[in-house]
Specification:
CATH class of the largest domain: Alpha Beta
CATH superfamily of the largest domain: Type I PLP-dependent aspartate aminotransferase-like (Major domain)
Mean pLDDT: 97
Number of strands: 15
Number of domains: 2
Strand content: 5-15%
Number of helices: 13
CATH topology of the largest domain: Aspartate Aminotransferase, domain 2
Oligomer: single chain
Strand order of the largest sheet: 2-10-9-8-7-3-4
Largest sheet: 7 strands, mixed
Structural class: alpha/beta
Length: 384
């Protein structure tokens, strides 16, 4: 089937958070896509809507089975159906697990630059973030292992939030790195929550490694967070899953999610997820090719028109992580100036941790003409 990702969908009047902007502005910031979801997902939602009764829902075994089958077929990892727990979203689950698995004033380790809402989940629950800054390389990032071990060895560090693949850089962590993280965390009695919400958005030819598959140790000490929300653009349906192989750890997570009342689905979340994970693969693969072409366009444009800005060579997500340090290290002011001059709305990098200073994040999950428009606006803002 041919899918038209060039078609424009007008999102005004839909209460779209991304598009609550001024006239003439172009939002390329928050991580949702400007593409309608897969036809199979839409059809599943429409069938459920046609029923007309939207009472309380249960989690059918088909939901667990769809997730287990998807991860086995797409990512070569086997989870048992009973290890998969429904939750209303990855962020609510992370916040719940922080409350359940740590005590107030303990520390949670993150590798920066990293998804900014991690900091909210940590600080809003009375815990303290500890940063293990990633080391910039010529083509991406690598882990500072000495710093990581030093910080994990602190008895107050009891939890690590891992972003796999990494947001905002799009780095796909290899099996060796993940296994080494798991071994260090086990040595220092640190539990790992692996946020893998972007895992299905890798460039064609690139596969991600689930943290739980990297080693038996990784599987035993971790909880994996997954969802169809990023890959299929259905975040507004509020459905995700946490997966814990260890029975005792899984019980704690389940108890926390239920205590916090974030383990019940709305009337559409289950049907949408089942459709995505059972018949959405063809659409997703076409989407991945389109997004990879958008990212290649950004990389080529910068090399030709704005060589003072470089793009981190990540092979996951639909986010371009732009190194603007040759222009300015004050990324907050730079983002504000670009928006004021041209209406282009990008995310400033320092909100992803101190290691993000001087960077901007650009979301290219949109029709190609919008990417072209955004790049032109960026060039005009820098050259003005």
């Amino acid at each position: 089937m041919v899918y038209d990702f060039d078609a424009v969908t007008n999102r005004s009047g839909t209460n779209a958070y991304k598009w609550e902007i001024g006239a003439g502005e172009l939002p390329m910031w928050v991580a949702d896509m400007d593409f309608p979801t897969a036809p199979a997902v839409r059809e599943a939602i429409e069938r459920r809507a046609a029923h007309g009764v939207f009472g309380y829902s249960v989690i059918p075994p088909a939901w667990n089975s769809a997730i287990v089958a998807w991860w086995q077929q797409r990512h070569a990892v086997i989870f048992s159906p009973e290890s998969v727990i429904f939750c209303a979203g990855v962020v609510p689950a992370i916040s719940s697990m922080i409350r359940k698995l740590t005590t107030p004033a303990e520390k949670v380790l993150v590798q920066t630059p990293v998804y900014n809402i991690f900091f909210n989940s940590i600080c809003n629950n009375g815990r303290f973030p500890v940063e293990n800054p990633l080391q910039r390389t010529a083509d991406g990032y690598e882990i500072d292992w000495t710093d990581l071990e030093q910080k994990l060895s602190n008895p107050q560090v009891t939890l690590m939030l891992l972003c796999n693949p990494q947001n905002p850089g799009g780095i796909i962590w290899g099996r060796e790195d993940l296994s080494r993280i798991g071994a260090l965390c086990a040595r220092y009695h640190v539990t790992v929550i692996s946020d893998e919400i972007h895992c299905d958005l890798t460039d064609p030819g690139y596969d991600y490694v689930p943290f739980a598959s990297a080693s038996d140790t990784c599987r035993a000490i971790s909880i994996t967070c997954v969802a169809p929300s990023k890959a299929f653009n259905i975040a507004g349906l509020q459905g995700a899953a946490v997966i814990a192989a260890d029975e005792a750890l899984r019980h704690k997570v389940w108890r926390g999610l239920n205590t916090d009342e974030c383990a019940e689905p709305n009337a559409f979340a289950i049907q949408a997820a089942i459709a995505a994970f059972t018949v959405g693969g063809e659409w997703l693969d076409a989407l991945r090719m389109y997004i990879a072409a958008n990212k290649a366009m950004v990389r080529g444009y910068l090399q030709q028109e704005l060589p003072e800005i470089t793009m981190v060579d990540g092979h996951a997500t639909y986010l371009c992580w732009l190194d603007c340090r040759q222009i300015s290290r004050d990324d907050l002011q730079l983002a504000a100036d670009i928006r004021q001059k041209t209406g282009l709305f990008l995310s400033n990098g320092s909100q992803y941790g101190a290691a993000g200073a001087g960077y901007l994040r650009m979301n290219v999950a949109c029709p190609r003409h919008m990417v072209e428009d955004g790049l032109d606006r960026l060039r005009r803002a820098v050259r003005l």
